[in-house]
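pinned: reference chain
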Amino acid sequence: MADHQDAATISSSGTAPVVWSNSIDNNGQSPLRELSRGLYAPALDGGDLPDDSLSATIRRLMSPPQGLYSADGRSVTLYINWAVGVVGVERFEPTPLARRLSLRQDDALRERGVSLGLSKEILEWLRQGEEMLTLPASHFT
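pinned: its structure tokens
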């Protein structure tokens, strides 16, 4: 085992994998630590996969998590990274002028999103816009 590994998985034997850590304990050693359950994406072992239909994607976009609401609950700030995670990175393409990912020209969300319940404001923002979009909370009710 090398002395200079950064958070690299060393082994996995049916239990939680062990990871090498650069932190030093009181004895001057760099201990191996088990990964904490719940901090990592679940293994895709045939369990239920999330619904990735267009309708389900639109429902998720139109139902942002509480963490995106302002402290007073009157506005919601959406971030493009959050939206890409909800929609799927494969549905986006880089756009040099916008300096961010934008919804692909041929994507079904562009073509049918509004008719399935996506707001025009969010669709336009997914196509082009700033890194974040702030809308009144009433937009999502």
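why pinned: Helices lie at 54-61, 80-87, 108-112, 120-127. Residues 54-139 form one domain.
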